[in-house]
Write a structure and sequence with these properties.
By secondary structure, this protein is mainly α. Helix content is 69%, strand content 1%. The N terminus is likely disordered.
Length: 429
């Protein structure tokens, strides 16, 4: 049978199932079981230590708000890397989103600011696509250049636009914009109050569940709902449509995709521009929902953490959402001054290390098991010898969690085969 130019490319390479080549991907029941086990452990730690803020509605609400920009940045990275383009420039695209979102938001409406933030991020994505796809610049170098360029551009325009005239009179300065109006937030009437009443009793597991659900249905920004819809939409588009199959084939084997008539350059451009737009939306969320103003250095490395969440999620939307939630939870702890909560989590970390040590001993990997035991004992002694943790450690919690999660999940990862690899048009003909 003759293959036409419009033929659908072959699916991505089959998943590795065990053996030396990789790990079997966890099924949904196993994932749900792990999540349930983790929640029960967290509830037990809360009950034992009295750190009530661990599962409070306020903590969960703050974690969700902080997880959204991380998740949007990670979602942008997923689009780009599924098409074979490494996007280290997510941080810079988020910076462009924060700036242009706030710039348009305070002058007009916050929703126009959201659109401006998306367009700012898309501009960064377009630059990255031109450099990497058309001119073949190394993806890492291009991404770092965009991060540097974004800082320089926003610093220059902040001094030009926010430090004079009406902007200055309304609170602008060379390092921040005037405040923008709020984006509407919603709560479910009745349900929020009912869950808050249950949470106050501090019952084991029941109150914890009420706190988590209460945080998810109270003062929920409409932009958060948009972010969730984008996560679901990404899964549908990339895994359930012919367009998504072609795009993913560009990240697995672009030469084979081109030989079947796929315009690889076009799909890479679309993916990287969408990637920039999603990162820009994450930046706009920071400046229009989280703080209502643009601040210099506002992203705080969340573009890089979003990339880490994407890697933790094995380049899939569901895993990315879990990673973003975990990092958002850690970020919320340090913003809420959670010295007591982080101290309580040392007990949970001790339990995790004991479980790892037991599992490695069962596998007869004695060195790894011994290391886990030693670290676990050290953590337990730290927990017993203190009542809280230093503020400096609390501030570093999101970054420590990032390193721990990536190191523990590294063995099961499988990136797209052609991710970051050079490709020139015509190789598949």
């Amino acid at each position: 049978m003759t293959v036409t130019a419009n033929s659908t490319p072959p699916p991505a390479a089959p998943k590795v199932a065990g053996g030396k080549g990789g790990r079997t991907r966890l099924s949904l029941p196993w994932i749900l079981l792990i999540v349930a086990g983790g929640f029960i452990a967290l509830s037990a730690v809360r009950a034992l230590t009295g750190a009530q803020d661990l599962t409070s509605a306020g903590q969960i609400s703050a974690a969700l708000s902080l997880a959204v920009p991380i998740g949007l940045a990670g979602l942008g990275g997923l689009w780009a890397e599924r098409a074979g383009v490494v996007n280290i420039g997510l941080e810079g695209m988020m910076i462009l989103g924060t700036f242009f979102g706030a710039w348009a938001g305070w002058q007009t409406s916050p929703w126009i600011g959201v659109l401006a933030g998306i367009l700012g991020g898309m501009f960064g994505g377009l630059l990255h696509a031109v450099a990497t796809v058309t001119f073949g610049v190394d993806h890492i170098i291009s991404g770092i250049a965009i991060n540097i360029l974004a800082v320089g551009v926003t610093t220059y325009f902040a001094k030009l636009w926010f430090n004079t005239g009406e902007a200055s009179a309304k609170g602008g300065s060379p390092k921040q914009s005037p405040p923008a109006e709020d984006i509407t937030s919603i709560s479910i009437p009745g349900l929020s109050d009912w869950l808050a009443d249950i949470e106050k009793h501090h019952w084991f597991l029941v109150s914890d569940l009420a706190g988590v659900l209460g945080g998810l249905v109270t003062n929920l920004s409409l932009l958060t709902i948009v972010a969730v819809l984008l996560l679901v939409g990404t899964f549908f588009v990339l895994w359930k449509t012919a367009f998504g199959l072609r795009l993913r084939s560009c990240g697995e084997n672009p030469i084979a995709a081109e030989s079947l008539g796929v315009n690889v350059y076009k799909y890479k451009y679309i993916a990287v521009i969408v990637s920039g737009g999603l990162a820009g939306l994450g930046g706009a969320f920071l400046s229009l929902v989280t703080s209502h103003i643009y601040n210099e250095g506002q992203t705080g490395g969340r573009g890089y953490i979003g990339l880490a969440a994407m890697i933790f999620g094995n380049w899939r939307p569901g895993g990315l959402a879990m990673g973003a939630g975990l990092f958002g939870f850690a970020d919320a702890l340090q913003l809420r001054g959670g010295g007591e909560s982080v101290h309580a989590l040392l007990l949970l970390l001790f339990a995790v290390l004991v479980a790892i040590a037991a599992w490695k001993a069962y596998q007869k990997r004695w060195i790894t098991s011994s290391i886990a035991v030693v670290i676990g004992v050290g953590v337990f002694i730290w927990y017993l010898g203190t009542e809280t943790v230093p503020v400096e450690f609390v501030s570093a919690t999101p970054y420590v969690v990032t390193l721990l999660v990536l190191s523990l999940s590294a063995q099961r990862l499988r990136m797209p085969k052609a991710d970051g690899m050079p490709y020139r048009k015509g190789q598949g003909k």
